[in-house]
């Protein structure tokens, strides 16, 4: 039988039960403390492949309108130095585990049919929050693995799921790699005989029904428990598709082609977020809600599924470790008045920090959790401008990791308060996509030609570090050169000392890494399902569908 490395499926449910009991005891102790307020609802919104210049609140060259999101961003705290991984699966596993890809092995996106997923002995955000008394529901894109049922959302702490297990698909037909991928999982541990193929949604636009599903979760929620809602939109991943009604205002502005469709995708998601928050407000839940909004990586402006996004003024694209691939769009908001509202958060922050921060916020302890790479930012987020001076910063470094294999093995990279070191290269092409101030800049792009150029550059033959043929070093001063235009001269004594310090940090991190699931050492990767071949779609009532294929 196929097994997941380290932990088999038989012991999995017992471990989950023990874990939930431990977390519940810790959270109950906090909730019972004198004067403790009710635990906050948590609304965690992820937009897929969002460009850094594509949301009103964060845009340098505002073009797209996002009034609903902007309302919360401006009343909350925009995260100005916040980082994600270069592609979807690495960031999503980091969100939910609090651990860097170098410790989970998920360094690149998980291709359809590959027997890889977040290892079952990793405790997830949903495990922690469900164990602390939350009703936890997931909607939208998963992409943390679906080789067997244990990888899927309702086996990872969520109590229901509507969405797709894979990484990308058509917004209307829900076809991915020639088969249908849209599931409705109605309860915890919802596997064979429980999980349904959501054929009733065939032909409907995913952003609209994901938003509607989130509204239903809110309306049906029993407020005796706090709610954890993980709303991971398909938007704005390729293909660039949106209903004409959402494109219409931008067509009047002169937008055409891919950028026009992309603008419609943004508009539909913004409307949906407005609907969900309105439902929470109508039910009296919003004033006791903490919201975290984030992209999963930078926009794919050059490669890795181009769809019309813009990362201006940053360099590079999704899949790269340039700022354009990793400097994420994000904000936090609270209806409880417990964060320093309207003040930008300039501290270094990473996607891995979200789980420790939420655990700190709700008082959940997790002794069974593997060591988190993230740190709690709660004390700094809640400190006023005057108080912040007396509260130590949670981070002095951010570790970027390496590029997604789709652009070759480059890196790793690391930064401190101002300086960033890239070992080797940030990932090809690595250019500066122009700002979206004219429609001609967003003419249809030929992805196939770009990929051919990557192959011509021989990127697939570059091995990871270490061993270290990536023996060049790029040092940037991001405080004065956020667009990474001007590498510093590393031969000067001052810069050489900075380089040495950052190189020490990067090497120390890399020394703790596990084999990557996207390398020749994949069978030793913690997330690799041993004894299981690649998956293929199956025929269910005349329809080809994707579902877990490894035996439990």
Percent helix, as a range, is: 25-40%
Strand content: 15-25%
Count of β-strands: 20
Q: Please give the alpha-carbon distance between the first and last residues.
A: 8 Å
Taking pLDDT < 50 over at least 5 consecutive residues as the criterion, the unreliable ranges are: 1-12, 21-36, 438-468
**Mean pLDDT reading:** 89
Global geometry: globular
What topology, given as strand order, has the largest sheet? 9-8-5-4-10-2-11-12-3-13
If helices are DSSP runs of H or I spanning 4 or more residues, what is the number of helices?
Answer: 14
Rg, alpha carbons: 22 Å
Query: Main β-sheet: number of strands, strand sense, barrel status?
Result: 10 strands, mixed
Question: Helix/strand/pairing class, anyone?
Answer: alpha/beta
Could you please describe the fold and organization of this structure?
The protein is an alpha/beta fold. Helix content is 28%, strand content 15%. The chain contains 14 helices and 20 strands. The longest helix has 26 residues, at 257-282.
């Amino acid at each position: 039988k196929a097994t997941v490395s380290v932990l088999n499926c038989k012991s999995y449910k017992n471990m989950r039960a023990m874990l939930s009991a431990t977390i519940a005891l810790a959270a109950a102790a906090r909730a019972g403390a004198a004067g403790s307020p009710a635990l906050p609802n948590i609304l965690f919104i992820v937009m897929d492949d969002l460009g850094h210049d594509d949301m009103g609140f964060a845009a340098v060259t505002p073009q797209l309108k996002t009034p609903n999101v902007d309302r919360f961003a401006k009343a909350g705290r925009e995260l100005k130095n916040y980082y994600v991984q270069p592609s979807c699966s690495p960031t999503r596993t980091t969100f939910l585990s609090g651990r860097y890809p170098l410790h989970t092995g998920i360094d690149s996106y998980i291709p359809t049919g590959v027997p890889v997923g977040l290892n079952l002995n990793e405790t997830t955000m949903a495990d922690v929050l469900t164990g602390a008394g939350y009703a936890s529901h997931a909607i939208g894109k998963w992409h943390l693995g679906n080789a067997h049922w244990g990888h899927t959302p309702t086996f990872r702490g969520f109590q229901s799921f509507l969405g797709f297990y894979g990484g990308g698909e058509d917004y209307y037909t829900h076809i991915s790699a020639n088969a249908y991928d849209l599931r409705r999982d109605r309860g915890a541990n919802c596997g064979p005989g429980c999980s349904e193929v959501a054929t009733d949604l065939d032909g409907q636009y995913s952003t609209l029904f994901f938003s509607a599903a989130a509204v239903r979760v809110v309306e049906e929620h029993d407020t005796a428990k706090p709610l954890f809602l993980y709303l991971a939109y398909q938007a704005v991943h390729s293909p660039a598709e949106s209903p004409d009604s959402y494109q219409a205002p931008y067509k009047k502005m002169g937008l055409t082609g891919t950028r026009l469709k992309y603008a419609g995708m943004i508009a539909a998601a913004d409307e949906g977020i407005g609907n969900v928050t309105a439902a929470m407000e109508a039910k009296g839940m919003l004033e006791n809600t903490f919201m975290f909004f984030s992209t999963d990586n930078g926009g794919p402006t050059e490669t890795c599924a181009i769809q019309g996004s813009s990362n201006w003024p940053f360099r590079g694209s999704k899949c790269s470790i340039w700022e354009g691939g990793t400097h994420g769009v994000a904000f936090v908001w609270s209806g409880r008045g417990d964060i320093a509202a309207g003040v930008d958060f300039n501290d270094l922050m990473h996607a891995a920090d979200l789980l420790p921060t939420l655990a700190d916020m709700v008082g959940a302890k997790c002794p069974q959790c593997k060591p988190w790479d993230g740190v709690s930012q709660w004390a700094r987020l809640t400190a006023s401008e005057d108080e912040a001076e007396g509260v130590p910063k949670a981070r002095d470094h951010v570790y970027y990791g390496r590029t997604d294999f789709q652009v070759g093995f480059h890196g790793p990279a690391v930064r401190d308060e101002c300086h960033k070191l890239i070992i080797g290269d940030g990932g090809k092409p690595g250019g500066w996509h122009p700002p979206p101030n004219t429609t001609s800049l967003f003419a249809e792009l030929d992805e196939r030609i770009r990929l051919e150029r990557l192959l011509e550059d021989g990127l697939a033959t570059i091995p990871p570090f270490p061993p270290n043929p990536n023996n060049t070093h790029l040092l940037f001063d991001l405080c004065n050169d956020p667009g990474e235009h001007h590498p510093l001269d590393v031969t000067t004594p001052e810069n050489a000392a900075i380089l040495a310090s950052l190189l020490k940090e990067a090497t120390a991190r890399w020394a703790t890494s596990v084999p990557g699931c996207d390398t020749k050492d994949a069978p030793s990767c913690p997330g690799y399902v041993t004894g299981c071949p690649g998956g293929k779609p199956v025929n269910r009532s005349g329809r080809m569908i994707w579902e877990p294929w490894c035996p439990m």
